[in-house]
Amino acid sequence: MNDKGIIRLFFDRDEKAIEYTEQKYRGYCYAIADKILRNAEDDEECLNDVWLAAWESIPPNNPPVLSTYLGRITRNISVRMLRRLNRKKRGRELTVYLEELGDALPADCNVENALESVVISDQLTSFIKRQSKLNRNLLICRYYYLDSIADIAERFGLTENQVKLRLFRLRKKLREALEKEGIA
């Protein structure tokens, strides 16, 4: 079934919408959750929450691209779950990624709060759009999908050192751009 048909089922409150959504997007959403959580049980729990969140949010939302909508829900739920697990000392991956990116953000800001800030979000989006396609992909893979340096290097045919250097330079450029806008 196509996305418009699935969304129509959501609007009709037909429970088959969940069934079709899971059939079509389970692998995609599972991959996002697994990159963040890295635990099969947590990934499954996350997916159950994703289907429920989709059911509760469609309607009123009518996503133009269902895969993107579900991907965002998956990522948000996974990050919240990882934060909860981190409080229980089960993992540290997200903290490492955010601390790495935190070098480019204002010193007096909490990293999580800064990332959620509308002003900084707009500046980040603008900064990313101005980058080359490769640099844009590196930033998104590392800080949105939370891919490892090794995975990124393999995917784009670079060495790990090249990826690290590019990301370092991009974080430096981001910091300069934020300072120029009076944010940092």
Task: List the topology elements.
Blueprint: H1 3-11, H2 16-37, H3 40-57, H4 66-87, H5 93-102, H6 111-116, H7 118-129, H8 133-143, H9 149-156, H10 160-180
Describe this structure in words.
The protein is mostly helical and 184 residues long. The protein folds into two domains: 3-87, RNA polymerase sigma factor, region 2, helix turn helix motif (Rna Polymerase Sigma Factor, Chain: A); 94-180, Arc Repressor Mutant, subunit A, CATH 1.10.10. The chain is built from ten helices and no strands. The chain has helices at residues 3-11, 16-37, 40-57, 66-87, 93-102, 111-116, 118-129, 133-143, 149-156, 160-180. The protein is globular and about 50 Å long. The N and C termini lie far apart (47 Å).
